[in-house]
């Protein structure tokens, strides 16, 4: 079971990383073409800025999920590092559980927000505003998955940082 979860986690992470590259490439291309068409040809793409805004929203949430998967979120662990080992384990467990609860709540609220804005459309793109918001519930759920797999694989609740004592 664990090996299956690790494979799914790795595949998901690889897909997220490719998505980040594609999003960044499309954003760079759109913004470059937008400037070129505006200032060189005098015929601006009025929609390129809106598409770039949509992509940056998705980039933010995909990047958040990748950071959870790779334990790259910033942590301030000086207080925890000063604690006895037995207390550190409890604190790491509490942080993990609290993070999963918060991410789960944010996924639920993000989904509700998508339902709220689904009938509204972007004036320039003519698409539902939910497309801007779908990234939130999707990648919060993926973040929870990454956290849980990290904790399961390492048999540790220290799912946010590499244990520097063993490096």
UniProtKB/TrEMBL annotation:
Domain of life: Bacteria
Subcellular location: Cell inner membrane
Domain Tripartite ATP-independent periplasmic transporters DctQ component: 27-152
Alphabetical list of Pfam families matching this protein: DctQ
Keywords: Cell inner membrane, Cell membrane, Membrane, Transmembrane, Transmembrane helix, Transport
Protein's membrane topology: Multi-pass membrane protein
Entry keyword Transmembrane helix: yes
Entries under InterPro entries matching the protein: DctQ, TRAP_DctQ
Segments crossing the lipid bilayer: 20-40, 52-69, 90-111, 131-153
Subunit structure: The complex comprises the extracytoplasmic solute receptor protein and the two transmembrane proteins.
Recorded family membership: Belongs to the TRAP transporter small permease family.
Function: Part of the tripartite ATP-independent periplasmic (TRAP) transport system.
Name assigned to this protein: TRAP transporter small permease protein
Species classification: Bacteria, Pseudomonadati, Pseudomonadota, Gammaproteobacteria, Oceanospirillales
């Amino acid at each position: 079971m664990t090996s299956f979860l690790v494979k799914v986690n790795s595949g998901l992470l690889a897909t997220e990383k490719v998505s980040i590259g594609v999003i960044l490439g499309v954003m760079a291309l759109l913004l470059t073409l937008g400037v070129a068409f505006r200032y060189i040809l005098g015929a601006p793409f009025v929609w390129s800025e809106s598409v770039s805004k949509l992509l940056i929203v998705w980039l933010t949430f995909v990047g958040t999920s990748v950071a959870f998967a790779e334990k790259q979120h910033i942590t301030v662990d000086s207080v925890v590092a000063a604690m006895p080992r037995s207390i550190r384990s409890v604190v790491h467990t509490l942080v993990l559980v609290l993070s999963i609860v918060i991410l789960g709540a944010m996924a639920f609220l993000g989904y509700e927000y998508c339902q709220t804005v689904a009938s509204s459309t972007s004036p320039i793109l003519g698409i539902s505003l939910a497309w801007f918001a779908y990234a939130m519930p999707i990648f919060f759920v993926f973040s929870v998955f990454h956290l849980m797999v990290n904790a399961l694989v390492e048999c540790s609740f220290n799912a946010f940082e590499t244990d520097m004592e063993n490096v």
